[in-house]
Amino acid sequence: MKWLNLLIKYRLWLGIGFLGIAIFTHWQTSFWPSFILYFIGVVLIVGHFLFGPMRLIQSYMEEGDMEGAKKVVDSIWFPGLLIKPVRSVYYTLKGNLAMVDQDFDRAEAMMKKSLSLGGGSLTKQAEGPNKLQLGMLSMQKGDLKQAESYIRQAIRAGLPDNENNAAAYLQLCSIMMNKREFRAAKDYFRKAKSFKPTTPQIVDQIKQIEKYITRMPG
């Protein structure tokens, strides 16, 4: 809804505007005629700092506009004021943007901050994807033991769609191949394929593994 995105985008400035009009009305008349203006202004300003522009950030990321997403993230001046579930999503998005920039240390720090907040339905929804990301970061660093732990935790916590589930099982397949546990690798590969992912990167990874997994013992 475009009107809602516009409201979120300009919520702070609208709130300040309403407060300005309220003060003027109060000065010209009395408090009660300006009460509703004060109320609207305060609600808009408090909403800006408690809930932030998360909807705008997610819209940009869904469209693949990372520069737009970064600008909105940078517009959040006081993330500590965001309510806990929204703050968790904020740190998750910061971690995702750091991953795009290949700043893996910062990405890991942001994902861990998100997980440390705990509680809340939004936070629980982010737990699985966050732990999957941490698992992939651990694989980038060559820490396969930690990677396996995070990915298993991600699967237990629950992943939101077929693409994430396929990615998780493919990572476990790679880890098992590295450990020469070929039977487990084949099982995880079959599970990954069963999710029928469509993301080109995951589909290509499946094709690459399929070339030689059938030749493995076990």
Give structural notes.
This protein has 218 residues and is mainly α. Among the domains are: 81 residues, Tetratricopeptide repeat domain (Serine Threonine Protein Phosphatase 5, Tetratricopeptide repeat, Alpha Horseshoe), CATH 1.25.40.10; 52 residues, no CATH class. 80% of the residues lie in helices and 0% in strands. It contains twelve helices and no strands. Helix 2 packs antiparallel against helix 3 and helix 8 packs antiparallel against helix 9. The protein starts with a helix and ends in a 5-residue tail after the last helix. 32% of the residues are buried.
Q: Which labels suit this protein?
A:
Serine Threonine Protein Phosphatase 5, Tetratricopeptide repeat, elongated, 218 residues, mainly alpha
Overall CATH architecture of the domain at 80-160? Alpha Horseshoe
Q: How far apart, in Å, are the first and last alpha carbons? A: 53 Å
Order of helices and strands: HHHHHHHHHHHH
Largest sheet: none
Count of DSSP-assigned helices: 12
Mean pLDDT: 89
CATH topology of the domain at 80-160: Serine Threonine Protein Phosphatase 5, Tetratricopeptide repeat
Quick structural overview:
Helix content is 80%, strand content 0%. It is mainly α and 218 residues long. Helix 2 (11-28) runs antiparallel to helix 3.
How would you summarize the topology of this molecule?
Layout: H1 2-9, H2 11-28, H3 31-51, H4 54-62, H5 66-74, H6 84-100, H7 104-117, H8 121-140, H9 144-157, H10 162-178, H11 182-194, H12 200-213
